[in-house]
Amino acid sequence: MSKTVEFYFDLGSPATYLAYTQLPKICERTGSQLTYIPILLGGVFKATGNASPATVPAKGRYMFQDLDRYARRYGVPLKFNPHFPINTLMLMRAVTGIQLRHPERFAAFIDCLFKALWVDGRSLDEPATVAAVLTENGFDPNEVLALTTDEQVKAALKDNTEKAVQRGVFGAPSMFIDNQLFFGQDRLDFVLEALS
Q1: Positive or negative, the Cα torsion across 171, 191, 11, 106?
Q2: DSSP strand pairing (4-9 vs 33-38)
Q3: CATH number of the domain at 4-195, out of 3.40.190.10, 3.30.70.980, 3.40.30.10, 3.40.50.620?
Q4: How far apart are CA 190 and CA 28, in angstroms?
Q5: One GO MF term, please (predicted)?
Q6: pLDDT, tens digit, for every residue of 14-28?
Q7: 13 is catalytic
Q8: Catalytic residue among 13, 52, 123, 196
Q9: CA 69, CA 152: separation in Å to the nearest integer?
Q10: What is the DSSP letter of 29?
Q11: Where are the domains of the chain?
């Protein structure tokens, strides 16, 4: 019986970006399913009293050096976003909305946003930049914006975030296999082990 990885993610986390580049390969290799669950990392931090490692200057400097090491190991591009940290509320509502209303476009949607943030270093805090990125990738910015104000979409993101905290999530990326939590892109070897 194939296992499932429940991947709790927020676009604003560079560690989550790295996990996102590796999890599909891991799941393909092990014949496992990958389920994407968008959450609001700011909401998780608020509920758990956690904070970004970047709020501690020495830890933040180390974190980005370490993430760069992992990007080289994985053979994927990673650029420190000069606009970090990014307020992802609207982005994660958009992600949730696309997942709910246009699941066939979900992969392409998160691909273009992860790339804009962690490869191209674009400022997705700015509505004009978000609109440009969406247009460049074949999405209608007005349609996506409408999703971010949809009450069902807003409630779904809030619900995902609350349920994540109830399950023990305190940051991103967080992955569950059979109700066992694995936190951080540097724990993917344990994810692979649990799936094998």
Answers
A1: negative
A2: parallel
A3: 3.40.30.10
A4: 16
A5: glutathione peroxidase activity
A6: 999 999 999 999 999
A7: yes
A8: 13
A9: 40
A10: H
A11: 4-195
